[in-house]
DNA sequence: GATTATTGCTAATTCGTTTTAGTTAGTTTT
DNA sequence: AAAACTAACTAAAACGAATTAGCAATAATC
């Protein structure tokens, strides 16, 4: 039922046309002319015919024979999230540089979907994968690692599983974010975060606590958990509570929380940073028109993408399984509203 | 030099273990037990062993034999652009539903990169491609079509090339956008756009002109071209000019232009829509914090993605080359600032 | 002038599937 | 009891490339 497309030209067709054996064609095509001393005459003739017939090697045959296809799989948790869209773009570029092709998929933060995607990728014979694990995907990642499939986790790691990862140093990021508010003179600093078991969230929470403790604000520690599903409602509620409790600054553990938080503050006609100071995470172009000064913790996306690909390709090309775990450092960057320009 | 991974179990290993020929194993694995009347006993035994040895069919061999691999290639012009990130996500979902795997790449609006990506995809044996052509890619697309590679253009078509495409009806979108401003009572309506030969831009420009003419505003037609490379500078200049000429509304032909335009108006302390009304294209989350009411032309991304995949898979599965060209309709949607909620 | 190298090529195998064309043994039909 | 069927299986070819082993012919060596 499949469309009948023109029959492909194979190495044999070229050989027949050139009056030589397929072996020679293969030699020439793979730059082994010297090694197998194919005469220049014949080599030129072969190259000529290859061009004439517009020969393209068959990747299936090649991969079947060689057992590799220079393809890696990349599964992020949400491709439509600018942070990951950017990551994906960088990964693709680096992979290309390293001679690999990257296959992308998005799990939409659902472990069942992640499992499906992984299955499909492995069936497509990717040699290794870069995965952003989602909540509840521990077992999936565990089998992946147990099966010795070259794996690099991205953005989040799983504490019990010994494998490669490239994440932000979330503890430090949480610490630095909190510390920066403390140094600005705030005392009643609250944290707004998701109640997730994911390492990135855990790390940020820990960092927040640690900073508060070290600066003698242990009693001020106040963590508000919001829900991903009813983000707006739970954020609104959480912020109302914080404010009623006299909170003067808040660390928002993700970009989505930051956005919701700022929206509600705007609704309440509260000014940032005068009435309440806000520290965000991973700010994107949502803030193009936000008109108060604001600080963010930003991740070195490009470096992280590069590292992830490098680790993976290195595993694929070397003989044994060392493990590399990288925690990148976040940077505090400032958003300046337009009117200040 | 490649990592020595455990030898894969093949159909032969299973056959040996079960004491039957590989043929039977293949029959059972492909659900042809009935058709080739394999005894239930043997079939069960085979299935048992398949599970035991954790056999996974080799995709290369399968594809080599069958000549297909149910994979399509998708090249967008910029994966980090939310509009395309969204498109990609939708395409992936639909493709999966249709039993296809989608391979993604981003050309970053560079025709050389597009050419590279296409080459790599075709070498990976994708059966067809969905491509967002970029400026200067006409020849690349032409050879693609000439080579009979199943192709669907997305977002932009190329007038001289007879092939499938799914685009916005940009002429109508430009018309409707302009008309909506006219109906609000504006007369001095200007268009801000890129000087590109891409069909989507051309269409929007035409639509603008058409609306102006039909409503008797031909003499008011004023088109300002801005440059992609120095977007901020050229936008600033263009807007200053428009305002000095007494313009009271502007249609921005892309989202990037809309953002720049609004930023500059904010800088000039001009109010939207009182001082100058603005009509944007493809608004995203950049406007979360934009505090004036604003209208956009938005595209039915999901439907477009679906159509593109459907057209492609249909070509792949049917016998001959009909051509489908779809122009989707845009919708005007309103952005309401927070304080109005 | 016999032996050994070197040059330039080919045949044949392998990778793991799918599928077509058989084969064998057992069962009906006449 | 010969002829025709059927059920249950197997052998072999094919997909397209890479590679190893080997075979002529010519050239170099002693």
What does this structure look like?
Chain A is elongated and about 90 Å long. Chain A has helices at residues 11-18, 22-29, 40-52, 59-66, 82-97, 111-123, 138-146, 170-183, 199-214, 231-244, 255-267, 301-317; strands at 71-76, 101-106, 128-131, 151-154, 164-168, 189-194, 222-226, 249-252, 277-281, 294-298, 325-328, 331-335. The model of chain A has no long low-confidence stretch (mean pLDDT 93). Among the domains of chain A are: 11-56, 434 Repressor (Amino-terminal Domain) (Orthogonal Bundle); 170-298 and 334-340, 3-Layer(aba) Sandwich (Rossmann fold), CATH 3.40.50. In chain A, the strands form two sheets. Chain A has a six-stranded parallel β-sheet, with helices on both faces. In chain A, strands 7-6-8-9-10-12 form a six-stranded mixed β-sheet, with helices on both faces. In chain A, 44% of the residues lie in helices and 17% in strands. With 341 residues, the first copy, chain A, is of the alpha/beta class. Chain A is built from twelve helices and twelve strands. At the A-B interface, helix 4, helix 5, strand 2, helix 6 and helix 11 of A face helix 4, helix 5, strand 2, helix 6 and helix 11 of B. The structure holds a DNA duplex (30 and 30 nucleotides).
Lay out the secondary structure:
Two copies of one chain form a homodimer.
Chain A: H1 11-18, H2 22-29, H3 40-52, H4 59-66, E1 71-76, H5 82-97, E2 101-106, H6 111-123, E3 128-131, H7 138-146, E4 151-154, E5 164-168, H8 170-183, E6 189-194, H9 199-214, E7 222-226, H10 231-244, E8 249-252, H11 255-267, E9 277-281, E10 294-298, H12 301-317, E11 325-328, E12 331-335
Parallel strand pairs in A: 1-2, 1-3, 3-4, 4-5, 5-11, 6-7, 6-8, 8-9, 9-10
Antiparallel strand pairs in A: 10-12
Helix pairs in contact in A: 1-2, 1-3, 5-12, 8-9, 10-11
Chain A binds a DNA duplex (30 and 30 nucleotides) through residues 8, 10-12, 20-27, 29-30, 36-39, 42, 57-58, 60-67.
